[in-house]
Design a protein that fits this description.
Strand content: 5-15%
Shape: globular
Number of strands: 8
Radius of gyration: 21 Å
Helix content: 40-55%
Length: 337
C-alpha cells in the first residue's frame, strides 16, 4: 500500500510544472540556500546542486517551490536551464563571497546589494502605484520610515524578551534596561523631523544593542567593524546573517513589485536602499542575538547559518517584512496638493 501511494505521488509530481508550484506564497516558504563548491543544474526535470566526493558525483535536490533565495558562494556555477527554472518559481539568485559576504553581481560593484530577480511581464503593480503615490513627498517618506523603525522596535522587544531559543541558549538581558533603551529610541523616532535625524537615532540604538548583546553572552569588548574587515567571530556572523536578512528584504520587495531604489530611509547613497529598509525590520531582532550566541559558543559558519535561517523561518520574518511594506504602501498618504 505504501509503495502504491508513493508511486501515485511521484506520478502526480511529474505532471507539475514550476509555474504550478509557484502557488506557494513566498512568505510561507521555508528555505534559504547558501551554496559553495558545487554546480547548480537541471537533472531529470529537477533543480539540483552537484558536489564531488572522491570519484563520485552527488546530486542534491533544491525544492524550488519552497525556496525564497539562493546565495551562490565560492567555487559555484549555475546553468542557464537552472536559472530558467528558478525564475519560473520566483527564486532570487545572488552571487557572494565566502561565508555569504560580500554580495557580488555581474554588473554592479561589490558594495551594492543587488540580486538577480526573476523576470515576468505580469508582476503586480498595485503596491508600486500606491508606493509612488506618496514617495515623492518628503514628509510622507519620513512617516513611512518611522513606521519601519517602530515596527523594528516592537519586533525586537518581542524576540529579545520572549524568544525561547535565545533564553534557553543563555542570552540573558535585563528587561528593564532593554525597555528603557527602546522607550528612549521610540521617543526620539517620533520626534525626528527629517531622515538624517532618524538615521542618527537608528545608529544610536543599534550601538546600544551591540553593547547589551555582547554583555548578555559575556563576549567581552566588542567593536563593530566595517563589512569584510572584522576578524572576530561576532563581526563575521553579523555580516553573514545580515545578508540573509537582505535576501528576505529583496524577496519581499520583488513579491510586491517595489523597485529597490524607492527607499524611505537608506536611499540617498545606495541604489538598493529599500532592501536595507526592509531588512532593518528583522536583523537586529533575530540576527544580532544569534551572532553573539554563536560567537560565544564557538560555532562555525555553517552552524551559525543554520541557526540564523531556522530563527528567521520560525519567527516568520518574511511575513513581517511583506505585511509591513504592504501596510506602508496602502496607508501612507502624500501631503502634496
Amino acid at each position: 500500500m505504501i509503495e502504491v501511494i508513493q508511486c501515485l505521488l511521484i506520478s502526480a509530481m511529474h505532471k507539475l510544472t514550476p509555474s504550478d508550484l509557484k502557488t506557494i506564497l513566498h512568505s510561507k516558504r521555508a528555505n534559504i540556500y547558501y551554496l559553495e563548491h558545487c554546480r547548480v543544474l537541471v537533472n531529470g526535470g529537477r533543480v539540483e546542486y552537484l558536489t564531488e566526493e572522491g570519484n563520485r558525483s552527488l546530486y542534491w535536490n533544491i525544492p524550488i517551490a519552497n525556496t525564497t533565495c539562493v546565495l551562490m558562494g565560492t567555487g559555484t556555477s549555475i546553468t542557464q536551464a537552472a536559472m530558467r527554472e528558478l525564475a519560473k518559481s520566483g527564486v532570487l539568485v545572488g552571487f557572494s563571497g565566502d561565508g555569504g559576504t560580500p554580495l557580488f553581481s555581474a554588473t554592479e560593484r561589490d558594495t551594492d546589494i543587488v540580486w538577480f530577480l526573476p523576470q515576468s511581464e505580469y508582476r503586480p503593480t498595485e503596491y508600486l502605484q500606491a508606493w509612488v503615490g506618496f514617495w515623492f513627498d518628503e514628509t510622507a517618506r519620513l512617516a513611512a520610515a518611522k513606521v519601519i523603525q517602530n515596527t523594528r522596535i516592537a519586533f525586537l522587544r518581542k524576540h529579545w524578551l520572549r524568544e525561547r531559543g535565545f533564553v534557553e541558549s543563555g542570552f540573558a538581558i535585563s528587561p528593564a534596561q532593554l525597555e528603557s533603551m527602546l522607550l528612549g529610541a521610540t521617543e526620539t523616532i517620533m520626534g525626528a523631523t527629517d531622515v538624517n535625524s532618524l538615521l542618527t537615532a537608528e545608529a544610536r540604538l543599534t550601538k546600544q544593542l551591540f553593547k547589551l548583546a555582547a554583555r548578555a553572552v559575556d563576549y567581552g569588548e566588542f567593536m563593530r567593524a566595517k563589512r569584510g574587515t572584522g576578524t572576530d567571530p561576532a563581526n563575521r556572523f553579523l555580516d553573514h546573517g545580515n545578508y540573509l536578512a537582505y535576501g528576505l528584504g529583496a524577496t519581499a520587495t520583488w513579491v510586491l513589485g517595489l523597485p529597490h531604489g524607492l527607499a524611505v530611509l537608506h536611499g540617498k547613497t545606495r541604489r538598493g536602499g529599500l532592501v536595507f529598509d526592509a531588512a532593518d525590520l528583522v536583523k537586529d531582532a533575530l540576527i544580532m542575538p544569534q551572532a553573539f550566541l554563536s560567537a560565544a559558543q564557538g560555532d562555525d559558519e555553517q552552524a551559525f547559518r543554520k541557526a540564523a535561517i531556522d530563527m528567521l523561518t520560525r519567527a516568520e520574518a518574511l511575513d513581517l517584512i511583506i505585511d509591513t511594506l504592504k501596510q506602508i504602501a496602502l496607508t501612507t498618504e502624500s501631503g502634496r496638493p
